[in-house]
């Protein structure tokens, strides 16, 4: 059974949602019969990558709030992330457009490494403070999960998988996705946001039971 997850690498709640979903999946007795596909979504498609600016500054400008308020909001998210074992370092997170990161994810998908790629992207962005719009960074992340660096470099430089990113974003709009993370179970059930693991587990059990019935009928 397929589960599709619309997500953005710069979305702090997407990484938290990923962990909570994974915790649910670990408890699910039929986890080996689940296929996860990551779908591209851009919260800020017009964002310009700026290595001189951190996320506090971007949030302050983007939301029209004071820098102290922006830091306080990010501190709250950092605490939420810590509860699921994630370390967020917003002080060094780089403001980076996510389009190329999504292309990297699609390349990884073609080689059966998409879930690993998504984990690497989130960790690079929120914990390591790396520029996830930078080809050198993406190629290094790819090498770390066993992707061919030369093939990845060529794909990035050729603009490959850009249409796939656009198609995912368009599909999200068509089915009414306005925010991420957004989880779709077997094209029938949806869970929006970084919900608790218990809710994900319930959705897994319900959708898989119906999926199984369809196979047996």
How would you portray this structure in words?
There is one protein chain. The chain has helices at residues 12-27, 55-63, 67-83, 99-110, 114-126, 135-144, 149-157, 162-174, 197-216, and strands at 2-7, 35-40, 50-54, 94-95, 182-185, 189-192. α1 crosses α9. The chain has one domain (2-45, 97-216): Glutaredoxin. The protein is globular, with a radius of gyration of 17 Å. It has a four-stranded mixed β-sheet, sandwiched between helices. Strands 3-4 form a two-stranded antiparallel ribbon. The two termini are 16 Å apart. The protein is an alpha+beta fold.
Count of extended strands? 6
Termini separation comes to 16 Å
Mass-distribution shape: globular
CATH architecture: 3-Layer(aba) Sandwich
CATH topology group: Glutaredoxin
Spatial arrangement of strands, main beta sheet: 2-1-5-6
CATH homology superfamily name: Glutaredoxin
- Secondary structure tally, helices: 9
Taking pLDDT < 50 over at least 5 consecutive residues as the criterion, the unreliable ranges are: none
Oligomer: single chain
Q: Structural class, please?
A: alpha+beta
Determine and state the CATH class: Alpha Beta
Relative strand content: 5-15%
- Overall pLDDT confidence: 96
Biggest sheet architecture: 4 strands, mixed
How many domains, as an integer? Answer: 1
Q: What sequence of helices (H) and strands (E) makes up the elements?
A: EHEEHHEHHHHHEEH
> How helical, in percent, are the residues?
40-55%
